[in-house]
Amino acid sequence: MLNWNDIIKFASHGNPEPERRLDRSDKEWKQQLSPEEYRITRQKGTERPHTGALCSAHEAGKYACICCGTNLFDSTIKFESGSGWPSFTQPIEVNAIKYEKDTAMGMIRVEVMCNVCDSHLGHVFPDGPEPSGLRYCVNSASIKLIEAINDNR
């Protein structure tokens, strides 16, 4: 289980290797994404709090990158943080997320991105619930919910 010290280490000294990489041109991203998805994922934008479609989603499933489809978070670790953005305590795999120090907006934060395609997701903070103490604060427009298929027939 990742903790804040792991996050700082990744942001300062390098991230885990992803299983694959996906590089596309800016033109290709603009063709694939809606203007809002492009603004958030490729230009490091942010949704207004409490406006994202996935803020109150509680269906079982995986949350995947809107750009490349990589599974990033599981619905079992999503929680209501009151922040206005979907919040998670851990990534689905250690190497699913990339971390970078972010000094924009006059503060120091840790940006989280898809480690496969460098899509901006949001930020991670050390004020989440135990046992990890992490809160991944993610823009709804940067992820999609892939609902679990119920095979109880």
What does this 3D model show about the protein?
The protein is α+β, with helices and mostly antiparallel strands. It has one domain: Beta Complex (Metal Binding Protein, Guanine Nucleotide Exchange Factor, Chain A), CATH 2.170.150. The protein contains 3 helices and 9 strands; from the N terminus they run H-H-H-E-E-E-E-E-E-E-E-E. The mean pLDDT is 94.
Features:
153 residues, alpha+beta, Metal Binding Protein, Guanine Nucleotide Exchange Factor, Chain A, six-stranded antiparallel β-sheet, 9 strands
Radius of gyration: 15 Å
CATH architecture: Beta Complex
Mean pLDDT: 94
CATH fold assignment = Metal Binding Protein, Guanine Nucleotide Exchange Factor, Chain A
Count the E strands. Answer: 9
Specify the structural class: alpha+beta
Q: Helical residue percent?
A: 10-25%
Helix/strand order: HHHEEEEEEEEE
**Can you count the helices?**
3
Tell me what portion of residues adopts beta-strand conformation. Answer: 25-35%
Instruction: Label the overall shape.
Output: globular
Neighbour order of strands in the largest sheet: 3-4-8-7-6-5
User: CATH class, please?
Assistant: Mainly Beta
Distance between the termini: 34 Å
